[in-house]
Structure prediction request, 397 residues.
Amino acid sequence: MSYDQKMFGLGSKRSIIREIFEYSKTRAAEIGSDKVFDFSLGNPSVPAPKEVNETIIELLGHEDPVLLHGYSSAQGDARVRKTIADSIVRRFGVDITPNHIYMTCGAAASLSISLKALVESEKQDEVIVFAPFFTEYRVFIENAGAKVVISKPEEKTFAIDVSDLESRINEHTKAVIVNSPNNPSGVVYTEETIKALCALLKKKSEEYGKPIYLIADEPYRELVYSGVDVPYLMNYYDNTLVCYSYSKSLSLPGERIGYIAVSPKMEDGENVYLAVCGAGRSLGYVCAPSLFQQVIARCIDAKVDIEIYRENRDLLYNNLTAYGYECVKPDGAFYLFVKSPTGDAFDFYEAAKKHEILVVPCDDFGVEGYVRIAYCVDKARVLGALPAFEKLAKEFK
Ligand code: PLP
Prediction:
């Protein structure tokens, strides 16, 4: 065999989410799509804001097509980066400039580039993730040449357990990845937790005489309900990189657009930014899609209607808990993390499947015995699934 076995492994084994999604399509062809309650994929169901589509049309009609579809600077168009930097200054009070922004193809690329920029693979670096976590972190971290270390959450709340984190940090720790609002739990970490986390990272960085970086993975920042606040991590910790994406915040997952923001207060930050540019270059992630860079710059304050997600959240959370299921009330993102009544995630997944409900068993997310319900679906699907969830709860009793 003359190809990389690890890459072969990644390519030949589909993720469980994709597996379920494929099954859902086959099943829908057999019995009708209205009878299959697929909650597997985090694909936004709310359309992109009207102004996004209007801007695309406007750009196509009025901009020079050669420029519009041409290469931008490797790190992204300077004016687009300025618009994004100005928006961060305005919204979060961080004194950031276009020279701290690197445009990417979404959060997946932002994370891959950031990790590649930071990890020194010859040095046995470790990157800590907080369970439950987005399973692709494992792929990105290992691909950058580091080891994945999992920090266990506080029981029941799924908040970060700072004392567990402390026990995982050692001289090899290069970075921690914080994802809030969280996929798959929907939990938003409180300011108190963030302060405790940052104080610990500062103390440990001093103890080991080197920075431990904080990577803030924020594709769900804008999807929060009940007015909860999502602390902006650069305001709490200098050695922060924000990995942002418009996939969920503007419902543009297929367009592959996002950015990395390096904190202007980062130690040796100019060089870290250059390492980000180098990592983007080495991975082939240069010149993020030009058309969508321009769209983002013109729609910087656009928002999707998150009321639709909030309604689904309330319907599912209120009814499922009334039927006897255990779950944390999600403050953000569009996922509900539900405990299997038997304690085994696959039991729950298989039993739900018999009622045509498709949920994702989450053992690979670092917490055993839970399934994820992605409620970024039509309300009709939620309403259709509720009686089946109720029957299922009775079966388990
Ligand atoms: N990070 C988390 C926590 C996610 O849930 C996702 C996608 O679902 C990503 C990153 C990747 O997002 P993108 O589509 O912007 O690459």
Remarks:
- Residues 191-208 form the longest helix (18 residues).
